[in-house]
Amino acid sequence: MQSTGGEFMEESLLRRIAEALERLAPPAPRPAALIGADAFIWHPARFELSTVPQVSGVALGLLQGIGQQKQILLDNTKRFAAGLPANNAMLWGARGMGKSSLVKAVHGHVNERTQGALALIEIHREDISTLPALLSALRGQARRCLIFCDDLSFEREDADYKALKSVLDGGIEGRPDNVLFYATSNRRHLMPRDMMENERATAIHPGEAVEEKVSLSDRFGLWLGFHQGGQDLYFAMVEGYAAALALPIGPEALRAEAVEWSATRGARSGRVAWQFIQDLSGRLGVGKAG
């Protein structure tokens, strides 16, 4: 029996709708290409990893004033690279104290000793909701991967918050054995205090509401705190950098210039110390500081 004109038009319309929906649907996860570099940036819109030929950062030995944090994160990363159990890590605390620099330096240090052991994959804060898709793409890869999110925080309850909790827990599939998640934040619990206070004031069960917020940071096995130091720590950082770069300047002159520099910045963080050393190296005509 031949189809009527109306039936033909209906089938054609349904076919066009189905094709349109297929075009709108996100691409199915496919294996990520972890070749050509040791670092990558995740682009969820294109579902691809772009290579980073050279990671911006400083050598592990140059990071001063964070010895304990450095050793803990390095040991955890070494175990992961060796195929042993390791924890997701949250690096939280004062701005400019070396949180993101430490993650990049530890990755570089491990790869120097075991060529290509780890792929560092940066995911931007606004793309956190796509973490499950990235994990699916990385699952089963031979190469071990550190997923890194810098300056992670949440301003409100949103889908991203739920997505990160699910990823850290591993969901029904579990976190892939070849993936570890490192993040930095200026907030210990990833959320501003006023948001948590508001939740406590408006919730039917205030304790449970706040516990829900705090539980996100609890899902990181490692918490490493970075705190603003005093002048002695600032001097230790400056002197350590100057010695490593063999800057031709005496200790008294170095300290005097460092104090003047910090006064103009209104801070004595590791970032301020490194910026001072870069400026001093340039003025002294010594190599390339950063």
Protein traits:
Rossmann fold; alpha/beta; elongated; 13% strand; 2 domains
Question: Describe it for me?
Answer:
The protein has 290 residues and is α/β, with parallel strands linked by helices. Helix content is 47%, strand content 13%. It is built from 10 helices and 7 strands. Strands 2-1-4-5-6-3-7 form a 7-stranded mixed sheet, with helices on both faces. A hairpin with a 4-residue loop joins strand 1 and strand 2. About 4% of the residues have low confidence.
Task: Outline the fold blueprint.
Blueprint: H1 5-24, E1 39-43, E2 48-51, H2 67-81, E3 89-93, H3 99-113, E4 118-122, H4 131-138, E5 144-149, H5 159-169, E6 179-185, H6 193-202, H7 206-218, E7 222-226, H8 231-244, H9 251-265, H10 270-284
Parallel strand pairs: 1-4, 3-6, 3-7, 4-5, 5-6
Antiparallel strand pairs: 1-2
Helix pairs in contact: 2-3, 6-7, 8-9, 8-10
Distance between the termini: 78 Å
Specify the helix fraction band. Answer: 40-55%
Q: How many DSSP-defined strands?
A: 7
Q: Can you tell me the number of structural domains?
A: 2
The computed structural class is alpha/beta
Low-confidence stretches: 199-210
Round the Cα radius of gyration to an integer and report it. 24 Å
Q: According to CATH, what is the topology of the largest domain? A: Rossmann fold
Largest sheet entry:
7 strands, mixed
Count of runs of 4 or more consecutive helical residues = 10
CATH homolog superfamily of the largest domain: P-loop containing nucleotide triphosphate hydrolases
The name of the CATH architecture of the largest domain is 3-Layer(aba) Sandwich
User: Whole-number average pLDDT?
Assistant: 81
Strand line-up across the major sheet = 2-1-4-5-6-3-7
The general outline is elongated
**Hey, roughly how much beta strand do the residues contain?**
5-15%
- So what's the oligomer here? single chain
Strand/helix succession:
HEEHEHEHEHEHHEHHH
CATH class descriptor name of the largest domain: Alpha Beta
